[in-house]
Specification:
483 residues; alpha/beta; four-stranded parallel beta sheet; 14 strands
Length: 483
């Protein structure tokens, strides 16, 4: 795509050739900050080495690719994890209020400069003033935590990121800001965590926390205490949905989904959501069982739409998935990922159950996420092909972060999940996509549309240089004339 493509003006263009959208406009209301934030946030550290990208899925349909090994969650003990989380939530809300809410506040005609990279230790006396200024910025958490168009949830592991995401969406300073329930999934079971993201969709609205079979992490425990779910009519009275074999901390108002193979657990979660919603879903989304990077974008859509995530092997449809699809043969099915991740033979098998089946995806995980963000078919799909949206950016080797961040796609600046395959470099496909949906204005920036990006993970996942580039790509731009 050309970078010279016209950027939208402050008023949306008439939709002459674009298919009509069935999606509601993004909800750009800001969340109320969490109560009693700590006085000093814990900014992410800079300078982490980049990680090599995962191998691409084999596009040949006849040969089933070997299953990818389960990604290991990044774990690092951090004292007072949720204190740092609360600070991040507070700063996030401030930035969303200032930079995201379209048409709700004044802003200068001049574009804000992109943030400087994190400093390198060293220098002499003549650099003292600059170093002091940079040190102050780092102590405040900028730009490593936030810029005018991005906000980082920078936990050291997915459990911390899940806790922060839940508190960002449900600040919980008053009873009305608390969720009726939370879902708790295992840190060693990314498939169950992705499938549990559907419980964040209305009417249940249960954000995800993470646990292990033997220990409830401190970050999850502190978040659960702050969220203080009490159950309600939309949750069947349950305050906690325990997904699989997890240690939980609750008061007995629990609904458990038994541990089992991933296809069966996903089907059980879909059945639970159907029971709570009182009706079948509008669509089913079938994701690759052994290709987590291709499956990751499904969590954001499930949280936003209420369409359950089911799983398939590359060359075989699991029995539990097939059984659930047969229960509602008229519900359309969308297969996420290329033929190397889920073969055409599987798609044909699904078509024998219900005729309405479609494939969405591209040949590598980064492009696959962009393709899903662009896709729409009637009421299915994000259809994000213009400015004025939220986005979530995570590393493609951490599927648990996709599940952890799913609540951000169902509240605030609702938006699709995009992936980066490097800590230091923004992938070309994502760069071109951001350029294509870059917001602009002609005369009045307060009447323009804005983009906002949540960056998930610490600097080992996505470093400050990449975040700064994302900020620049999503900056509101002046188009033509003189300001």
């Amino acid at each position: 795509m050309s970078r010279e493509r016209p950027i939208n003006a402050d008023e949306p263009a008439a939709e002459a050739s674009e298919p009509s959208k069935s999606e509601a406009a993004p909800d750009q209301t800001a969340e109320t900050p969490a109560a009693k934030p700590p006085t000093s946030p814990d900014p992410a550290t800079a300078g982490a080495p980049s990680k090599p990208p995962p191998p691409e899925a084999d596009p040949e349909e006849k040969a089933e690719p070997a299953p990818e090994p389960k990604p290991k969650a990044r774990r690092r003990q951090i004292p007072g994890a949720l204190k740092a989380v609360a600070a991040l939530v507070l700063l996030a809300v401030v930035f969303i209020v200032v930079a995201v809410i379209g048409g709700s506040g004044g802003s200068s005609d001049k574009e804000q400069p992109a943030p400087a990279p994190a400093p390198v230790a060293g220098g002499d006396a003549k650099d003292a003033a600059g170093s002091a200024s940079t040190q102050t910025a780092n102590e405040l958490g900028y730009p490593a935590f936030a810029t005018d168009n991005t906000t980082r949830i920078g936990g050291s592991d997915p459990a911390a990121n899940a806790a922060a995401s839940a508190l960002a969406v449900f600040p919980s300073t008053t009873p009305s800001q608390r969720p009726a329930a939370v879902a708790i999934a295992g840190e060693d079971d990314w498939q169950a965590a992705l499938a549990a993201a559907v419980l964040m969709a209305p009417p249940v609205r249960a954000p995800l926390l993470l646990s292990t079979p033997s220990e409830f992490p401190d970050a999850s425990a502190e978040a659960l205490a702050a969220l203080d779910p009490a159950g309600g009519a939309t949750t069947g009275g349950s305050a906690v949905f325990a997904i699989g074999d997890v240690a939980i901390s609750g008061d007995g108002k629990e609904t458990k989904v038994a541990a089992g193979e991933p296809g069966a657990m996903a089907a059980a979660i879909a059945a639970l959501r159907e029971r709570l919603a009182g009706s079948p879903p509008d669509h089913y989304l079938v994701a690759p069982l052994a290709a987590p990077a291709f499956a990751m974008p499904a969590a954001a859509w499930a949280a936003r739409s209420g369409d359950p995530v089911l799983f398939s092997e590359a060359g075989k449809l699991p029995k539990a998935t097939a059984t659930l699809l047969r229960s509602h043969p008229k519900v359309p099915v969308y297969v996420l990922g290329p033929a190397g991740a889920i073969s055409s033979a599987v798609v044909n098998e699904i078509a024998k159950i219900g005729e309405d089946v479609h494939r969405v995806g591209a040949e590598d995980p980064v492009a696959n996420a962009v393709a899903f963000a662009r896709y729409h078919d009637g009421s299915f799909g994000w259809n994000v092909n213009d400015p004025g949206h939220g986005f979530v950016l995570a590393r493609d080797d951490s599927p648990l972060d996709a599940a952890a961040a799913a609540p951000l796609s169902a509240a605030g600046t609702w938006g699709p999940l995009l992936l980066s395959d490097s800590a230091s470099t923004l992938p070309g496909a994502v760069r071109e996509y951001f350029l294509d949906v870059k917001p602009g204005y002609t005369t009045d920036p307060t009447r323009a549309f804005y983009n906002h990006v949540w960056v998930i993970g610490d600097q080992e996942a996505i470093d400050v240089n990449q975040q700064a580039e994302v900020n620049e790509l999503t900056e509101l731009a002046k188009i033509g004339g003189e300001g």
